[in-house]
Structures are given as structure tokens and as C-alpha cells.
Amino acid sequence: MTGAQELFIALVVLYLFECVLVLRRDVIVFRSLGFGRFRAIPAGNLPGSPERALFFSMPAPPLGGLYLTEQSPISLSPTGISTRRAEHFGCESEALEPAEFRSYAKIEQIAADGPALKINDEIAERLCGPVAARALAAEIDVLRNAPDAAGRDRLIERALDARFDIDAAAAKRETTEREAGTLLMLCNALCVYLFTIVPLVVWRSGLDGTWAMLLIALAGLWGSIAAEFVRVHRRLDPDASADRRHRFAIICCTPLSAVRAYEWLLRERLAAFHALAVAIVTCEKADAAALAGAMLRDLEYPCRRAAAGVAATSIDQCDASGESELRSREDENAEADEAAAWLRSRLRDRVIRLMRRLELDVAGALAAPLRDDADSVAYCPRCHTQFVRQVADCAHCPGVAVRAFENVVTEKEPVEVRS
Ligand SMILES: [Zn+2]
User: Fold this and answer.
1) Residue 240, number of CB atoms within 10 A of its CB
2) Measuring CA to CA, how many Å separate 259 from each of 181, 254, 339, 353?
3) CA 386–ligand 1 middle distance (angstroms)
4) Which sequence spans correspond to the domains of the chain?
5) Do the beta carbons of residue 33 and residue 64 sit within 8 Å?
6) Which residues surround ligand 1, an ion (CB under 5 A)?
7) What gap in Å lies between CA 357 and CA 215, rounded to an integer?
8) Whose CA is closest to 297, among 141, 89, 36, 9?
9) CA–CA gap between residue 210 and residue 206 (Å, rounded)
10) Where are the alpha helices (DSSP H) in 164-284?
11) pLDDT digits over 218-251, tens only?
12) What is d(CA 253, CA 260) in angstroms, rounded to the nearest whole number?
């Protein structure tokens, strides 16, 4: 193998690393392969570790687009903020973890530091990107300055309406993709140039007489992408100058990063909207309906830890000081759960409203699934996993009771998951 061939293989491997995204499990990816409609891919279904998922984005032309949305890791209520999630779609195990509740009076400082949300100068949560972190920090800042709970109630309702505004999401998508059309073309051109034209020229004519011309063409395309990225980013998001500088610096590092510039520009553009609103404006109706049904079931049959049982058992084993600490922790968990339940009911109302607007079958989404075969005797109402023996709770959805199919005689036996 020649030196040029080794260099080319190294470039391809490095580029493929550029195409891998490490995502939180609560993220929902909307991916287009460059031919129009997007597909919703919950990170919970992707390979990876229990906390992080690996997503491989489209490496070759026409490259396509990518939008990321996430379910908020923090639940806002009129009384305070809770680290218990209202939605556990894709991150079910988090329902088993202890949660914290903080009243607005205890929040002295709130800020976003990159993707991290800082409360009183401590990192409280990490979000999918700086745009989402800034939006959440701004929302909490407004809430903590509101005069009373009634005012905060109205503010949260208004913010939720904005998250589910499909007309605004459609307009933002249209503006983004129109403005970024030239950038997409340049990224495709650079990808073709690096991985097709350069190898062909080197193979046929060698590097000796061609390297200067190849380098000039590369610099032209690379520089055009950097300049176009800054122009479009400034036009779409004039206030995000720190993000712009950060991305610009990365694009300037290698031409491989420059090929991904269009994807970077799109990633967080719809992060302020609920995943269902993004699905409706980007996906086929059948995909949006499937996501809507799964999200509605997540809100209707939420994952939860058996708090009362855990507390009772643990308190019995504690001494007096440990008991009071445990009780206060359980009280805090109860407040956190209450705040999440408050938000969950409002999210559920909006998901149902959107489904009705799109003439989707709400009752059908909550109904029992069709039995896989005659052996199936029970199902999970949340994830629709089917069981061949009756069990208490679903193995995938903590705290969600399994239901028997109608007209099926069952016996209580150890769990055996069918799908
Ligand atoms: Zn389940």
C-alpha cells in the first residue's frame, strides 16, 4: 500500500468518527437522508451504554439534515423546580433515582454554561446543547422573578403552548433550510471533492504536478463553507455569538469538520419545541402518529419508583438521626414527584390536543395492542411489550403494572418477557 493510499484510509476513518454523535438517552433524533421527509429515532433505541447512545449520521452526499430534541430533565411547576422528569420516554431507569426539589426562593443565580444548567453556581443538569440550556435558564429566571404561584402557572402554560406550536416550528424549519441551502451544497461539494475527486486525480496523475491545484481548490471550498456558516448562523441566531465562534473554530480545524457544518447548523434549531411538534412538521403522518401514541402512553402510565415501600423498609433499619434525614429526603422526593405530575398532566393535555388536531386516534393509542400470538396473556400498557405469563410490573417500565389481555385465563408465575 502506498503512502497516499494509507493517508486516504486514515482520512476516511477520521471522517467516519466525525459522523458519530454521542447522545443522551432522552434525545429524539430527526434524521433526513437528504430526500425530503425526516424519520424520528429515539436515542433510547440506539446502541450504546445505559446513559449514552451512539448515532451514526449520514456520511455521504446528499448528507441530509438532523434535528435534535430532548425531553426536559427538569420539571417546572408553579411552586418550584424538580429533577424528576415529567416524561421518561427512552430514559425509564431515571424514574428509580432520587429526585430533588427546589423552590424558586432558593434560586439565587441561574445561568447556562455551554450545555450545562447552573443553579447557584453549581451544575444542576446537562442538556443536549447550549441553545436548550440557555432557553431553560431564561425560563427559570423569569419564573423565579414572578410575583406569585398563579403568575408562574400562567407563564409555564404560555411556555408550554410555545413548545407545542407546530406553526412556529414549521416556519422555523422552512427558514432554516432555505437559508442554509447554499451551505448544504458547499458541504456536499467538499465531501465529493475530498473522497472522490482528490483520490481520482492522485491515482491518475500523481501528487507531484497536481498538489498545488488540489490545495487551492480545497482552500476555496473550505473557506467558502466557513464564511457561509458564519453568515447563515448570524442571520438565523444573531445573539449566539459564542456558539458561532466555537463552531467556526472547529470548522477551521480540519476540512473533515467543515463537511459536517450543515448538520451542526441544523442540530439545535428546533430544540425549543416539543419532540411531537417537531415530528409533525418533519415526518410522515404515520411516523408522527406512532411517536404521539408512544409519548401519550408514557404520560398516561408514567414510570415511578415505589417510594412508600422504599421509605418504610429503610426507616425501619435506621437510628433516630438517620430516620429524620431519610424522612426529609422522602419528603423532598414527594415534592419532586408532585411537581413532575403537575407538569405531566399539562403535557398530556397538549399531546392529546395535537393528536385531535391531526385527527389521530387517541383512544386507539391507549388501547391494548393486538396479541402477537395465542401465547401472549398480558401486556405493558406503556411500552406494549407482551408477556407469556402474568407478572406484576413491566421489566422495561419501572412501576408500571402489567395488564392481562381480555378473555385470557392467566396464572401468577415468574416473569418471562416475550418481546
Ligand atoms: Zn413496559
Assistant:
1) 17
2) 14, 9, 43, 40
3) 9
4) 3-70+169-267, 368-419
5) yes
6) 380, 382-383, 385, 394, 396-397
7) 54
8) 89
9) 7
10) 166-179, 181-192, 198-205, 211-236, 241-253, 255-259, 261-267, 275-282
11) 999 999 999 999 999 999 999 889 889 999 999 9
12) 12
